[in-house]
Structures are given as C-alpha cells and as structure tokens.
Specification:
The protein is of the alpha/beta class. It folds into 2 domains: 217 residues, P-loop containing nucleotide triphosphate hydrolases (Rossmann fold, 3-Layer(aba) Sandwich); 64 residues, ACT-like. Chain A, domain 2 (Alpha-Beta Plaits). Strands 6-7-8-3-9-10 form a 6-stranded mixed beta sheet, sandwiched between helices. Strands 2-1-4-5 form a 4-stranded antiparallel beta sheet, covered by helices on one side. Strand 12 and strand 13 form a beta hairpin. Helix 3 packs across helix 4 and helix 4 packs antiparallel against helix 5. The longest helix is centred in the middle third of the chain and has 18 residues. The two termini are 42 Å apart. It binds adenosine-5'-triphosphate (ATP) and magnesium ion. Adenosine-5'-triphosphate binds next to helix 1.
Length: 320
C-alpha cells in the first residue's frame, strides 16, 4: 500500500525546474532512497513533501493528506531530519527533545516517557544533560533522529542523514534506520549521494536535474546493466571497440583511456575477448559486478562522485 503519492510534481525557480514533473509512490514500511548529485532536486522535493515549500504544479499526498492543503495533518504524520543541523546548541539533548514535544502538543507524561525511550534507542541517555553544542557530529544526528520520532510519525524524512560523518558513525545511524523500519514499521524516505548507502534501501529513485531517471530496487537497477562490467585498456581503444562491436554485437563506451562494456558471465567472456583482440595489446583488464555508481554513469554519462566532493566540503564549511 502506498503511503506517499506524488503526481506530476514540479517546482520552478524562475525558468529553471528544480523538480521537473516527477511522479512516484512510496510504500508503507519501506526504506525509500532518493539518490542524486548536488543540485538534483532532492531537498526541494523533501521540502514540498514536508509542507515547507509550495509546488508550482502537480500534487503530493502523505497518508491521503494533500501536502499543500492539509498541512497540519501532514505535519503530524511526518518527522523530519533536515540536511542542515537544526538543534539548539544552547539547550541540552533532553531540552531539545522536550521543546519539540511541546511544539507538537505531545502530552507531558507521554512525552517524558518517549524522551527516555528515544534517548536510549539512539544511545544518548547518558549524554542527555550535556549542551548539544558539545556533541559530536554523529551524536547530533542521532539526537535529531530521536527528535523527529517524538510525535510518533508514520513517515520519517531524512535529508542526507550521514553526510560528512565517518564510516563507523554512518553504520551506526543505519542501524537505527533499520531498527525503525523493522521494529516500529516506520516508512523512511531519505536522500543520499552515497552509493553504498543507497544499496541499503528497499527501493531507490535516481534523480538528476529534477527528473527521476530510474526507480527500482538496487538489485534490479544493477541487473538492468545486463551482466558484469568489463573495463580494459588496449594499444588502440577505437580499433578494439570496432572489433568488439563486430564480433559480439556489444557497443562499448570509450571514456578517457578505458573501454567499458557489459557482458553476461564476465569471467567466461574474457578469454573470448582476448581471442577477438589478438591483434591489439591489452594492457589491463578488470571484471566486476556493476555498482549503483555504474548505473548512474550509464544513465547520465557522469560519475555521481565527481560532483559530490565539493558538496561535502561545502557542508563541512557551513556546519563549522
Ligand atoms: N530558493 C531557491 N532559489 C533558486 N534556486 C534554488 C532555490 N533552492 C534551490 N534552488 C536550485 O534548485 C536546484 C535543486 O536544489 P536542491 O537543494 O533541491 O538540490 P539537492 O539535490 O538537495 O542538492 P544537494 O545534494 O546539494 O543537497 C539547484 O539547482 C538549486 O540551486
Ligand atoms: Mg539537498
């Protein structure tokens, strides 16, 4: 059953469509990932879903409530962890949660008990009396997740939940995300430009220049590349490309000094490739299963990472 429904959603800034006519559904209880490079339109989409931004056209519904018209109902159905840190550093961890609970009118007794449960869940109970400005990046993120859950939302939105965090802390955050899905049945909608993280989602939508260019399970997206990825360098890449086309009816990509092609059962294909290319010198060859990065590359002709380094450093600067 779908809990989020998005139809023909568009957001324009002047002539530019930050979100360009997207339509899809998110199913109840799934971890849904929005994967795309900087400026793809991820935060803009989340802001519309969270009622913080009006769409130019199209609509979105959460639990049947229209995000443009039924704002209060939507807000009580969702929790948000923003891309930019949003804790009050001069309050303690516990005070940050209490303040949020009051804003959402969670009754006092319920609120205080939930605060204890959530602080324990994100392993911050011991640190609840410390000012959050003294928390580490990972602690802050965990507290923001706890805060997003305090009013028992059905859907939790996480905009780049692990950006700039070290791998260990990222794993920890992911443990919490999976726990929310498995034990509490919460639907998770998250954005990321970490490919490895997108692998953890039940389904992902790849977004680029405001458009959804693919949507499926990570496995199916990789299967769409039809086989293993073989990369090779030869003494004459253009000549080799022609031979491969003629012998195998496969159209390889040549980028920089490397030939890329996909073939079923790569290990068995390599000896055939050597025979076909016997008139050229093969200087290196590699066979591996495709990754989501390869899916992105195939769809857009670009690496997602090329554009993310700057984004991460920008985040670090703006977060101090
Ligand atoms: N208030 C605004 N006015 C004009 N353009 C905007 C505004 N907000 C966003 N944009 C543009 O819309 C596009 C999408 O931005 P958005 O923040 O949604 O991208 P994103 O996928 O979240 O990127 P990132 O990975 O860097 O967080 C970008 O080109 C951005 O410059
Ligand atoms: Mg963003």
């Amino acid at each position: 059953m779908s809990i989020i429904e998005i139809r023909d959603l568009t957001k324009k800034y002047g002539n530019k469509s930050a979100v360009d006519n997207i339509s899809f559904e998110v199913f109840e209880g799934e971890i849904f990932g929005f994967l795309g490079p900087n400026g793809a339109g991820k935060t803009t989409t989340i802001s519309i879903l969270c009622t913080l931004l009006e769409p130019t056209s199209g609509y979105a519904k959460i639990s049947g409530y229209n995000v443009a018209n039924d704002r209060d109902d939507v807000r009580h159905s969702i929790g948000i962890v923003f891309q930019d840190p949003s804790l009050d550093g001069d309050l303690t961890g516990e005070e940050n949660l209490r303040f949020h609970g009051m804003a959402y009118n969670v009754p006092k007794d319920t609120r205080e008990q939930r605060m204890i449960d959530l602080l324990e869940m994100v392993d911050l109970y011991e640190k609840k009396d410390e000012l959050t400005k003294n928390y580490s990046g990972g602690m802050k993120r965990r507290l923001e997740i706890a805060r997003g859950l305090l009013h028992h939302p059905k859907v939790l939105f996480l905009d780049e939940p692990t950006i700039g965090l070290d791998p260990q802390t990222r794993n920890k955050i992911w443990e919490h995300i999976r726990e929310l899905q498995e034990k509490k049945g919460i639907t998770i909608f998250l954005t990321t430009h970490y490919m490895e993280e997108a692998e953890n989602c039940n389904r992902i939508a790849i977004i680029d220049h405001g458009k959804i260019i693919a949507l499926d399970t990570p496995d199916n997206l990789k299967k769409s590349l039809k086989g293993d990825l073989i990369t090779l360098k030869t003494s004459d890449n253009e000549g080799s490309k022609e031979v491969i086309q003629t012998c195998f009816s496969i159209l390889p990509d040549v980028k920089d000094d490397t030939i890329y092609l996909y073939a079923e059962n790569g290990e068995n294909f390599v000896p055939k490739l050597f025979r076909a290319l016997r008139n050229y010198e093969i200087t290196s060859i590699n066979v591996r299963k495709p990754t989501l990065n390869d899916v992105f590359l195939k769809l857009t002709g670009r690496q997602i990472r090329e554009e993310t380094v700057d984004g991460i450093s920008r985040m670090r600067v703006s977060h101090g």
